Amino acid sequence: MTTQEQTTPLTRTPQPRSQRSPRRLIVATVAVVVALVLPLLVPGWLGLLVIAGIFFLIVLGLNLLMGYAGQVSLGQTLFMAIGGYGAGLLTLRWHWPTLVAMIVMAVVSAAVAAGLGTVFLRLRGYYLALATLGLAVITESLASGLTGFTGGPSGLVGVPSLRLGTFDVFSDQANYYLLLVVCGLGAWFVGNLQRSQTGRALSAIAADPAAATMLGINAARYKTSAFVVSAVYASLGGSLYAFYLRFISPEVVGVTVALSIVIMLALGGARTIVGPLLGALVIQGLPEVGQSFASWSPFVAGVVLILVITYLPRGIWGAVKKAVQR
Amino acid sequence: MSGLIQVLIGGLADGGVYALIALGVSLVYSISRIINLAQGGFVVLAALLAVSIQQWLGVPPLVTVVIVVPLFAVLMAVVERLVMAPAAARATPDRMLLVTVGLLQAIGGLLLLVWGNLPYTMQPFSGDTAITIGGVRIVSQYLWIIGALVVTVAALWFLVQRTSLGLTMRATASNPEAAALQGINVGRIRLIAFSLAGAMAALAGTTVIPATFLQFSTVTPYAVAGFIAAVAGGLGSTAGAVVGGLVLGLLQGLFSRYTSGDLAQVIAMAVLIVLLLVRPTGLLGKTSEVRR
Amino acid sequence: MTIAVQFSPPPRPSPPRRRLGFVFAALALATTGCSASAASDDSAYTLGLITSQTGTGSQLGVGELQGAQLAVDQINARGGVNGKPLRLRTADDQSNPAQAVLQTRKMLGSVDALVGPSLSGPCQAVIPLASSAQLIDYCLSPGVKPKPGSYQWSASAPTDTLAERLLAYWKSQGITRVGLIYTTDASGLDGAHAIQSAAAHTGVSVVGQASYSPTAVSVTSQLQATTSGTPQALVVWSSGAAAGVAFKGIDQMGLKLPVATTDGNLTYAFLRRIADYTPDTLLIPATRDFWWQQQNTSTQVQQLERGYHDEFRARYGADPDFGPGVAYDGVLLVAQALEKAHGNVAGARDALESLRGVSGVVGTYSFARDNHRGIGADDVGIVRATGGRLTFVGR
Question: How many angstroms away from the CA of C387 is the closest CA of chain B?
Answer without folding.
Answer: 16
